[in-house]
Amino acid sequence: TFSGNTAGNKGGGMNNDDSDPTVMSCTFSGNTSFQGGGMYNVSSHPTVTDCAFSTNSAQQGGGMYNLVSHPTVMSCTFSGNSALQGGGVYNVASNPTVTNGAFSGNSATNNGGGGMYSRNSSPTVTNCTFSENTANDVGGGMHIDDSSPTVTGCTFRENSAGFDGGGMYIGGIGIPTLIGCEFCFNTPNAISGLYTDGGGNDLENCDQLPTEGTCCLSSGCIIARETNCIAAGGVYWGDADEPGPTIVMREPFAPNDRPMTNGGGVSSTRLVWTSHVEFTDADFSIVDSLSQPVPFSVSGSGSAIMLISFGATLLNDDYIINVSDTVQSLGGVSIDGDGNGIAGGDAVFSLRHRLRHDSDDDRDVDLPDFAEFQTVFTGP
User: Which of 254, 200, 201, 337 is nearest to 50 (CA)?
Assistant: First the structure.
C-alpha cells in the first residue's frame, strides 16, 4: 500500500525512471505530487495489475502520469483522483495498454480529461468503464488531444464536462478509433470531435437497457450487449438468463487466503463487477469469527465499483462478507455470486487479518513467533 505520500515534483506514490517494474495487487491512495500523484512513469514500461488508484492528486495525472512510456495496465481501478488535467491518467507521447479497467469519480479542474487525458499519444483502451468522471472544461470521461487511441468495448456513462464532450472530447489532428463502445447519459453531449467509427458504437440510445449477456474476447469474458460484443470481435453466448454480473477484482486481496498483515488493519474493501450493479446496505452482511455483526456502509450503487467501508477497522480476526444475490445489474439480472455461470447465488468471501510477525497464525505475537524469527535468521 502506498498511502499519504508526497513528492514535490514527480510520483507521490511511485516514480519509475527508465525502468520496467511489475506491480501487482497494490493500493495507491491519498498521494500527491506535481505530476503523477499515484505513479509517475518516464521512459518506462511497467506492468500494473489488479491495483487501485484512489484519491490521489496532482497538477497533471492524479492517478498516473506517463511520459514517453508504454505501461500495461490490467484490471485496475482509478477512482476519486483529481488533477488540473487527467484526473485518472495523463498520457503524453505515450502508448499505454489499458484493459478491464474502471475509471469512476475522477475530476479535472482545468483543461479536461476527468478519466483520462492523452496528448501526442496512442493508447489502446479495451473493456473499460468511464463513469461519473467530471471536467470543468472539456472531456469529462476522456480528453484526446493530437492523439489516435483505439477504444474498444468501453462504456462511458454519466460523465460530465462544463463546456463540451461529456463522454469524450477530441481535439487537434489525431483521430481516435471507436469500436463497440456505449455512451449513456453524458452531459452536455456524448462525443465532441471527429473519430473513426469501427462499428457497434451506441451513442445515447439508452432509454431502456437492452438485454445483456456473456461476451468472450481474447482477454476474457464480460457482460455486454450482443451488438457491442460482435463489433469488438467477441463471441456472444446468450442473454440475461445466462450468467449475471460477477466479481472481476477484489481489493485488498491476499492470494491463497493468506492473511493480510499490514499494521493498521483493513478499513474498507472494493469490489469491481463485470457490469454496473444496483444495491443497498440491506444486501450485505459482515460478521467476525464469533458471528458478531460488523458495522459497515456501502457506496457506488449504479456503477461497476462497490466500496464497502467498515465502521471499525478490521484487525487481527477472521471476517465473512456476504453479498446477497438481491444485488442486480441495471437490467435487473441477479449477480452470479457463486460463479456457477447462472444468475443467482450469494457472493461469500473471507477477509483475514493478522498482526505482523504472527508466524503461527494464532492471532498473537508470542514466544513461538520469536523462535520462528530466530530460526529464519540464525538457523535452528
Answer: 254
> Could you give the CA distance from residue 117 to residue 132 in angstroms, rounded to a whole number?
15
Half-sphere exposure of 150 (CA within 13 A, CB side): 9
Q: Is 111 helix (H, G, I), strand (E, B) or coil?
A: strand
Q: Residues 175, 196: contact at Cβ < 8 Å?
A: yes
Cα within 13 Å of Cα(289), Cβ side: 11
Cell numbers for 296: 459497515
C-alpha cell at position 90:
495523463
Its pTM stands at 0.59
Complete edge-to-edge strand list for the sheet that includes strand 284-287: 284-287, 317-323, 347-353
Phi, psi (deg, nearest 5) at residue 203: -105, 105
> What are 344-350's contacts with CB under 8 Å, separation 24+?
344/244, 346/322, 347/247, 347/322, 347/323, 348/320, 348/321, 348/322, 348/323, 349/250, 349/320, 349/321, 350/257, 350/318, 350/319, 350/320, 350/321
Helices (H), the chain: 226-231, 367-378
Which pLDDT tens digit goes with each residue over 251-303? 665 444 555 555 567 788 888 777 778 899 999 999 998 999 999 999 888 87
The answer to whether residues 75 and 249 touch, using CB atoms and an 8 Å cutoff, is yes
148 class by beta-carbon count within 10 Å (0-12 exposed, 13-18 middle, 19+ buried): buried
